[in-house]
Amino acid sequence: MSKTFLFIGFSFDDPNLENILSRVRIMLEGNTRTHYCFFKEVNKNDYEFRKIKNKKMKEAAWKYAKNKQYLKIKDLERYGIKAILVKEYSDITNILKKIESIYLSKNIFISGSFDDFEKYCVRGKVESFVENLSKKLHEEDYKITSGYGMGIGSSVITGVLRGSKTTGKENLDRILSLKPFPFHIEDRIEREKIWHKYRKDMLKNCGTVIFLLGNKKKEGEVQLADGVRKEFAIAKTQGMNLIPIGATGYVSKECFKDMCNNFEQYYPNSDKNLNKAFQKLGNKNVSEKKMIGNIIDFLKLLRKYHMEM
Q1: What is each CA distance from 143 to 25, 107, 119, 208, in whole angstroms?
Q2: Does pLDDT of 25 surpass 80?
Q3: Burial zone of 248 (CB within 10 Å; 0-12 exposed, 13-18 middle, 19+ buried)
Q4: How far is it, in rounded angstroms, from Cα 137 to Cα 141?
Q5: Which residues partner with 208 through β-bridges?
Q6: Which of 82, 197, 238, 301 has the greatest number of CB atoms lying within 10 Å of its CB?
Q7: How far apart are CA 200 and CA 219, in angstroms?
């Protein structure tokens, strides 16, 4: 069994369920993963005790229920199921949101595009940096999503495929998601509307966005890529982890500066180590290998930050 289960709303008093759990335990003897379930902690203020007027009877009923719950919890441990006690049922929703946030943080969207690299400040070629960053992210067990941004998309694919040779994870659906934009929509207003929805749909299954460069050429002139800006705005609205690599210049540098000036707004109650690691993403003229290392270090601290919140 390779999955971890979280049981919600199950009655563990059901003899049929107990029979199934017993059989599973026997089948997986020695290879049992830890699974989880929720229990609302027995409280004297629960209605079933408040309605008892006699103090001694109320105390006895509460102690009985408390002991019964304790024994049930210990019994479930035999099946590899650990109980999580909550004070209120609403706590379950908060815990599930946190689990979702931590899970999605391992799904990274790489946003970026480039026609020009004059202001790119990482040593080496852009394509090599993007490819090796994608390879390293895969090796660190991140799933990558790409909108196939101009100049970026093919390097992302190559990097993940190279990484999969190392890890042996070759099921593309599990390691890489490609979302190329629908072009050839002539009506500008309709195109903008469709692209905005498309961007939101692309980002909703990711928890982290890495921004690289962000420029394009229009009529021979280099311009900042408004698409990368829009992806930053959507990701910010959706409360995602934003990681603009300032050293790559252009829109990414613009977003990086904004976050440096308002770091507490983006990562509330974070410690100085997270901020310090973020600042390194703007370091100029560092090697490709060093910058990739800085990104991985920040991601690890970011995961720790979310686990401790």
Answers
A1: 32, 5, 29, 10
A2: no
A3: buried
A4: 7
A5: 108, 241
A6: 301
A7: 29
In whole angstroms, what is the distance from residue 101 CA to residue 208 CA? Answer: 10
Check pLDDT > 70 for residue 289.
yes
Separation of alpha carbons 69 and 225, rounded Å: 58
> What pLDDT score does 94 carry?
93
d(CA 163, CA 147): 19
Total-model pTM = 0.87
The size of the chain, in residues, is 309
Contact call for residues 138 and 106 (beta carbons, < 8 A): no
Q: Which of 133, 180, 176, 152 is nearest to 251 (CA)?
A: 152
> Largest Cα–Cα distance in the chain?
86
Q: Please, which pLDDT band fits residue 26 given cuts at 50, 70 and 90?
A: confident
| Three-state secondary structure of the chain | CCCCCEECCCCCCCHHHHHHHHHHHHHCCCCCCCEEEEEECCCCCCHHHHCCCCHHHHHHHHHHHHHHHHHHHHHHHCCCEEEEEECCCHHHHHHHHHHHHHHHCCEEEEEEECCCCCCCCECCCHHHHHHHHHHHHHHCCCEEEECCCCCCHHHHHHHHHHHHHHHCCCCHHHHEEECCCCCCCCCHHHHHHHHHHHHHHHHCCCCEEEEEECEEEECCEEEECHHHHHHHHHHHHCCCEEEECHHHCHHHHHHHHHHHHCHHHHCCCCCHHHHHHHHHHHCCCECHHHHHHHHHHHHHHHHHHHHHC
pLDDT in tens, 213-259: 999 998 889 999 999 999 999 999 999 999 999 999 999 999 999 99
The contacts of residue 117 (CB under 8 Å, 6+ apart) are: 126, 213, 249
Structural domains in the chain, sorted by start: 6-90 (no CATH), 101-308 (3.40.50.450)
Mean pLDDT on 158-174: 92
